[in-house]
Structure formats: C-alpha cells, structure tokens
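Lecture 7, part 2: worked example. A protein chain together with nicotinamide-adenine-dinucleotide.
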Amino acid sequence: MPPKPIKILVTGAGGQIGTELVRALRQRHGRDNVTATDVVEPSPQAMAEGPFALLDVTRRADVAAAVESRRIDVVYHLAAILSARGEKNPGLAWEVNINGTFNVLEVAREKGLARVFCPSSIAVFGPETPKENTPQETVLRPKTMYGLTKVAGELLGDYYVQKHGLDVRGCRYPGIISHETLPGGGTTDYAVAIFFEAVKNGRYACFLRPETRLPMMYMPDCLKATLDLMEADFGRLKHHCDFNLASMSFSAEELAAEIRKHIPGLVVAYRPDFRQAIADSWPRTIDDAAAREEWGWKPAFDLASMTADMLRAVSDKKTRGLLP
Ligand code: NAD
Ligand code: AKB
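Predicted complex, written out as structure tokens:
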C-alpha cells in the first residue's frame, strides 16, 4: 500500500510567502492535499491552482472545522499582521498574531496534528539586542506590537512542544524579497518595491535612510528553509520555534548600487518615515549557527545573485504587461 498522503492547511496563504509556499507544497505533496486559506479571497489564478477556503484564524471554531472537515495533518500558520501595519493598528495585530496563533495551536493540540509551522521574525529583537551577528540566545525586548506578538508566538509554540508534546517549529525570517506577491505591510518592504519601481520608472523614493542595514533573504531560500526545517528529524532539534536564520544583509544604498549595475540610471531619493525607527531597532546581521547545526541550513543566494534574478523576473513581468 502506498503511504497515506499528508493533508496540509496553510493559513494566510494569499500573502507574500503563502502564495509561493502553497505552490512548493503542492509540488511536493500533490495539488489536492494542500488547502490554501485566507481571510480574503485570492486572485482567480490562485483559486484555479488548488483547494481554497476562506478562514479567519481569530475564529477558533472555524479553524477547528476546517482542520476536521479536511482531515488535516499539518498546518503552516502564516496569517499575521506585519510590523508597519501592526504599528498602525496594534489591536488588529494583537488579535490576529496572538489570538490567531493561540487558536491554531489549541486546535492542533485538540485534533492531535502531526506538525505545525509558526514563523517568527527578526522583529523579536529590539534596541537592547546586539546588532551585529545577533546570537541565538539574546535579549528579546522588541518595541513594536508585531515584535512582541512574535516573541509570544515563539514562547507559545515552545510551550506546546514541552507541555503537550505537539511538534511545533518556526524560524526568525529576515525580510523576504520576492516578485510574485507584494509584501503585506512590513518595514523591509522597500527591498521589494525598489525593484518594481526601478524597472517601471527608473526611480524610487525609499522610506528608510541610505545607511540602514537589515538582514534579508530571497524567496527561494525562504521556501527551502521552511521545507527543510519542517522535514528535519525532530530528535535532532534542540530549538523548536525560534531558529535564527540568515542569508544576506545590506543597506538601502548598497541595494541601490547593486541594482545600478543593471540599471545605471536608477535614481533613489531617501525620505525616512515612521518605519525608520522600527528598522533602527532591528539587528544588522544574524548568527544562524543553531539552524546550520540542527537541521543543516545553508542559503544559496547573496546580494548579487538575488538582484540579478529579481531584475530578470520583474523585467519579464514588464514585458508581459503583468506589473502591478
Ligand atoms: P503577508 O502580510 O504577505 O500575508 C499575511 C496573510 O495573512 C495575508 O494574506 C492576510 O490576508 C492574511 N490574514 C490577515 N489576517 C488574517 C486572519 N485574521 N485570518 C486569516 N488570514 C489573515 O505576510 P507574509 O509576508 O506572507 O508573512 C507570513 C508569515 O511570515 C507571518 O507570520 C510573518 O510574520 C512572517 N514573516 C514574514 C517576513 C517577510 O518579510 N515577508 C519576515 C519575517 C516573518
Ligand atoms: C516586516 O518588515 O515586518 C517583516 C519582518 C521582517 O518580519 N518583513
């Protein structure tokens, strides 16, 4: 008998990471074994790619019903309100990030799910954290609502591992750079927007100062990290929900200079807004030795290869008339 297929549910699947993670999971596990869910309906194209259900993670009974009716084994819980949007609406960030995550973990415990993925973020760090080579174990005193909900999410996930024997895993993603779905209201979003504006108009107004350096990662590495962590041998993991994860770090002006190697005329103006204070509170570089040791993490892309690939993909969208 062939092994029973794993049934997967993804929350927040219409977002920047979810759109591409759902595709990667469907390639691995089969189209109909991966249900994408979100509080908003996706594009008709995404709808046509496989099963979708509307699901608000703040409604625990609905989460339980979706898991039950679709006989779900594994949840990738991506629904969240990110840093900049969270500062504009802290109540919503609390509701979705804290109560939504609690609901997903409670349902996972009640239904005896095999595994849950709850991503965290470099937003768990704050101004008192060492900024260079930020250690795995360090001060977690973030100054944003998003950051504090992510600290709580890590602690909650670890609590379910220790207290209930639930297999919960997560890593602290840096800013994710991608070209399929635009980011949903974070502080690192400039590093995506600059590519689209460079290709469309040859100019970009950046909301961070030129010297602001942040940890970033290209989407193919983000997907690889997620899948590798979820497929790692549980017995090898000493950490569970809080793995530091690194790939590249660059400042806004270094990114602009790299893009200028391909688009020499790019003009960038710097007009810092409220997101500057958030960026200033985050690390510049990350020590991800625990992820490397415990599940073999190794990124493939650096600034030069990511930039070349992003420009190829965004220019291709322009040629096909698909730019947003
Ligand atoms: P995103 O903002 O692009 O997508 C989040 C999705 O959640 C959206 O589609 C939104 O509609 C949905 N959502 C919001 N409220 C909901 C609710 N009540 N119920 C169900 N869905 C709801 O976010 P993303 O960038 O794809 O991030 C996914 C996860 O990765 C989040 O946990 C985020 O904190 C984490 N993360 C992302 C980054 C990044 O740079 N993208 C970096 C660090 C961590
Ligand atoms: C944000 O900027 O809020 C996210 C993140 C780093 O968590 N991209």
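The chain has twelve helices and 14 strands. Residues 82-83, 121-123, 146, 175, 186-188 surround 2-amino-3-ketobutyric acid (ligand 2) (CB under 6 Å). Keep this in mind for problem set question 3.
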